[in-house]
Design brief:
The chain has 97 residues and is mainly β. Helices cover 4% and strands 61% of the residues. Strands 1-2-3-6-5-4 form a six-stranded antiparallel β-barrel. The protein is globular, with a radius of gyration of 13 Å.
Length: 97
């Protein structure tokens, strides 16, 4: 079984959980999930939504690509005074500018 390729991207992101907007930063991203760092606790199993603006220079495209994701929290723990939140991405769509 192959493990997913993770990209160590630090990008600002707003995470919506239980109708509350949380400011977070990505720690790494793969095709199936993302690891966030944030100051709030979100319960494991909670559905979340977020949009990430993927930089053109990382993707090799002419412009940044904004991706809207729907997923759920699968792990939450404290690391270095902040929450580390892992989420799987169940659905995603590309947002048009």
């Amino acid at each position: 079984m192959r493990s997913a390729v993770r990209f160590p991207l630090r990008l600002p992101v707003q995470v919506l959980a239980d109708s509350v907007q949380h400011t977070a930063e990505t720690h790494d991203i793969s095709a199936g999930g993302v690891l966030f760092r944030l100051d709030a606790e979100i319960t494991v199993g909670s559905p979340i939504e977020f949009s990430i603006s993927m930089p053109a220079e990382i993707l090799g495209t002419g412009t940044d690509v904004k991706v809207h994701c729907v997923g759920r929290v699968v792990r939450s723990c404290e690391e270095a005074g902040r929450r580390a939140l892992a989420a799987v991405i169940d659905e995603y769509s590309f947002e048009r500018p």
